Amino acid sequence: MPADSAAVLPSPARPIGRSRPNIHDHPVYRALPSDAQQRLIAEGVELDLSGDAQTPLDRDHLWFILSGVLGVFPAASDVCVAPIVSGSVYGWDHALGSSGSGADVRPLLDVRLFRVPAAAVREALGYDWLSRFIALQAVQRLTFLEQEAACNASHRVSERLAKWLLRLHHGGNGASLRLTQAQLAAMLGVQRTSINAAASNLQTRGAVRFSRGKASILDADSLSNLSCRCGAA
Fold this sequence. Notes:
CATH architecture of the largest domain: Sandwich
Largest sheet: 4 strands, antiparallel
Radius of gyration: 18 Å
CATH superfamily of the largest domain: Jelly Rolls
Strand order of the largest sheet: 1-7-2-5
Helix content: 40-55%
Structural class: alpha+beta
Number of domains: 2
Order of helices and strands: HHEEEEEHEEHHHHHEEH
Distance between the termini: 17 Å
Strand content: 15-25%
CATH class of the largest domain: Mainly Beta
CATH topology of the largest domain: Jelly Rolls
Number of strands: 9
Mean pLDDT: 82
């Protein structure tokens, strides 16, 4: 499930011709009015955070995810319940003055971010534009949730696990995924025993290797063939 204030896109951004993506590569930034783009460039800053960082992102800024993956963690919990992948934006509700859902958002993998003060975004885009955009995002989130509900009801756990591993793999630009099977079980809403069986199946097929809280994608094409492909671009 996507974060409440994340811009959910059908697939992560894949920068072309740059080893280090910047804000100009971001699909949401490119969709903004040119005067707003100039204001964001003037007010914003790019930064890198390690996947081991434990301090959650603050609610005074809007965060464009340039590469890597953020995780959504319920208050006082170490279990990630949703990823926010590259090409998304976290914190639109902050720009409207809302404190959000109360969940912590912090790196799940190493991330490169573009951070802009929420007040600057509100001034650059205006309340009406933001309200319309967030309403559009709400419709997009509802569609996403409907697709996920249908997927949960009709596909095997191994297919759904393959799908989520691919999402994280692409969102993290191929980096190893520091996720325990308990976290994966929470993200998919299934028992850990079901995840254990599904993970064993994917590993036996040579698509993934699991070891000590880390998942390494060995064959993305094979993993794609084993996934349900719901929501694939």
